[in-house]
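In response to a reviewer's request, we include the raw inputs and outputs for one of the modeled complexes. The two entities were modeled together in a single run.
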Amino acid sequence: MKTIYFVTNNMGKVREAKALLEKLGIDAQQLAYEYPELQSDDLEEIAKYGAKHAAMHLKKPVIVEDAGLFISALNGFPGPYSSFTFKRIGNEGILKLMRDVKDRKAQFRSVVGYCAPGKETITFSGAVEGEISHEPRGRSGFGYDPIFLYGDRTFAQMSTEKKNEVSHRCIALRRFAEWLQKNNE
Amino acid sequence: MKTIYFVTNNMGKVREAKALLEKLGIDAQQLAYEYPELQSDDLEEIAKYGAKHAAMHLKKPVIVEDAGLFISALNGFPGPYSSFTFKRIGNEGILKLMRDVKDRKAQFRSVVGYCAPGKETITFSGAVEGEISHEPRGRSGFGYDPIFLYGDRTFAQMSTEKKNEVSHRCIALRRFAEWLQKNNE
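The model returned the following structure tokens for the whole complex.
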């Protein structure tokens, strides 16, 4: 089984990635290291920069993952700053911004950046379309999951397994795993 | 007259800085260069990283400035991501988040980072206390100025000159100018 290092402090992400990658023959080990995160509107740029930095510093093949919730009616807010925004105003703040807003369309996007020391970063992306609910529902997952409606349930009302079948992060991770197997790195 | 290079794309900031620094014997030239901006809760860290990078790359003594609006009732939101948040949800979004919120206290903070090639970055900070208004007022300034109440007027209802007497950015720039004169760099 191949081992890669997932550089993140987010245990929710690690849980999801481990469950998925294991089935694809990849052992994902968490490495808690604070790589510099760029301010950018572009998740790909953030993941590229972070993976390159972490691989160089840790001297291991690493993946980093950057994700964001992009709400149509809010011009893509909170986007790449989803994590910061969540810590400050939470789901309550997002629901307040969406009060009386008819267009509830939203997209979760994820970019996985893979980098081995001395090589270029390769990125893999995934997205899932949904809607912002009118109130939080469910207790599993993390972050914006309770207000992200996928069909008639929020991500927080789905098991990790069900969420992994459709989520932005798992689409990106699956693309990465397929590439890794093909390229036998 | 000493010349320093203000690395920014924000013409509003350049206007304010030029007016202030000229009086203090410093000629501030704008340089439009996109230095990497860190994602961090700490303006000082962002300015330090940016100034160092820009000085190395441009081979000139530079200043960069990073500012943010920190709203008490929103746990410091939008803080270091003020510029992104403004582009996405604007003053309208902030006022919506502040609807029915009694505590209107807010602070504008600024950090100026100065770096000469091969040297360490030095930072200078400034802050101004105010309140979030209930509706936008005034047309001068930029960004959150129309909703930032200083006394009974918003920053956007004040002339550049008046705003420069009290603003976060000008406190930080004045501290920088004093240091530069003393250290005769």
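As requested, we also summarize the result in words. Residues 2-183 of chain A form a domain with the Maf protein fold (CATH 3.90.950.10). The beta strands of chain A are 2-7, 26-31, 62-71, 77-79, 105-115, 122-132, 148-150, 153-154.
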